[in-house]
Amino acid sequence: MTDSDRTVDFGFERVAAADKAERVRSVFASVAPKYDVMNDLMSFGVHRLWKQFTLSLTGLKPGGSALDVAGGTGDLTAGLLRQVGKSGRVVCSDINPAMLDVGRDRLLDKGFVGNVEFMVADAEKLTFEENTFDCVTIGFGLRNVTDKAAALKSMHRVLKPGGQLLVLEFSTPVLPGLKPVYDAYSFRVLPLLGRFVAKDADSYRYLAESIRMHPDQETLLEMLRAAGFAHARYHNLTGGIVALHRGYKI
Amino acid sequence: MTATAPWLASVEALFNRNISASTEARSLARRLEATSLLIEVEKMLRVRVCVFNGGLALLNGNEAGAVPGTSVPGTPVDATAVISGSAPALLQLLRGEGASVAARAGVQIRGDAEIANLYRQLFAAAKPDFEEELSRWIGDMPARRLSQVARSVRSWARRTRRTAGENIAEYLQEESRDLVSKPEHEEFLQGVDAVREATDRIEARLKHIEQRIKGAN
């Protein structure tokens, strides 16, 4: 079956697999200028804590190398750069050039130059050599990838033996009573915020829908294992609204 | 499998940072590579500790720590050793030295005791320095000041607890007379001993008299 025959989810819609990447690209091209403001508004700033927690587990040392897949506006990249220092190397990759532009400008404004590279790359087909990075992160990006299993295998390939993958992504709330409140917020408040702040309600409706279609914690954990990651486990954050999955390449 | 608590991940990161900074801890971690320790804190939690890739991995006690369905060489599936006890007892074990401390503290060790002891040494060698950790967040000077304040508060609390204990004991012994003082208590016990000895002597004497009467008849 070819990509044009196969259908995948795009939010609650089914679209041809070949079309998903383009549609995701157009969503993020639309939201890129207001992406950071919207993140703060939507999560009440808590996304910073989720990212800080992720960064605290990288195990990177000065001189290390890291890849931030779907790095977008560069929040995780900036943290990784602080950890590897001037002697290290960080690559921020994203399939969307508009998001990468925003990220590059932000990191330049923060004074990060020299040891950071920006690359338009498809997470499913990373073009780096095998065993290149000590750590690979993907923050709020995996759910937008068409073939998640292929992306996980691709990230596994570019990790050095002993290297760690950290997947920060929206997930399924596990705290009793949280789900109805979260659903109401996602499907009523988020599109409104999108309409008034980013002038794009549809993209934020897609955000809420894509979160619901994303594999839950246990399913994603199994996917990590199937991709070859050892010691795979996850941590629920904010009652499971977000989960951080991690695994090592042996 | 259930999720691993985020606080365990933070503790793990803290220990791993200290392991990579300490030669002794790195050497211990190398010796413990591909082993695992199950820590059972009574009525609280079970944590599985694995040493992997030169660092610690803290997992929920029920997690195997391996990849089911795959054969990953060197990945521990069962715990090499199990340490169980109450939280204070386990803390005492961490502070103390040697296996005798474990017995005194009421900690049970099952499995490979040597491995359990090496883990204890690793925890001690990679023990977090809270002043150092605090300084990462708020800077060196404020962290130093806060540590000094914390030390003063702890020392004051210890002094206050000791003084309060002494004052209460003195009131109960000297003022309200609900309790006897130590000298009075000792004097009483000496009196009891004297009575017991006198009774024994009288008993022996009576037996002696009885025998003499029987002999005369």
Offer a few descriptive terms.
heterodimer, A: 250 residues, alpha/beta, Rossmann fold, two-stranded antiparallel sheet, globular, B: 217 residues, alpha+beta, five-stranded mixed beta sheet, elongated
Give a written overview of the molecule.
The complex is a heterodimer of chains A (250) and B (217). By secondary structure, chain A is of the alpha/beta class. Chain A has a single domain (24-174, 206-248), classed as Rossmann fold. Chain A has nine helices and nine strands. In chain A, the strands form two sheets. Chain A has a seven-stranded mixed sheet with strand order 5-4-3-6-7-9-8, sandwiched between helices. A two-stranded antiparallel ribbon of chain A has the order 1-2. In chain A, strand 6, helix 6 and strand 7 (159-170) form a beta-alpha-beta unit. In chain A, helix 2 (35-43) packs antiparallel against helix 7 and helix 7 packs antiparallel against helix 8. By secondary structure, chain B is of the alpha+beta class. Chain B has helices at 6-21, 23-31, 87-95, 99-105, 113-125, 130-138, 140-175, 182-216, and strands at residues 36-41, 45-52, 55-60, 81-85, 108-111. The longest helix of chain B has 36 residues, at 140-175. In chain B, 24% of the residues are buried.
* Beta-strand segment tally of chain A: 9
The CATH homologous superfamily of chain A is termed: Vaccinia Virus protein VP39
Mean pLDDT of chain A: 88
CATH class annotation of chain A: Alpha Beta
Count helical runs of chain A. Answer: 9
Report the order of strands and helices of chain B. Answer: HHEEEEHHEHHHH
**What integer value in Å does the Rg of chain B equal?**
29 Å
Contiguous low-pLDDT stretches of chain A (5 residues minimum) are: none
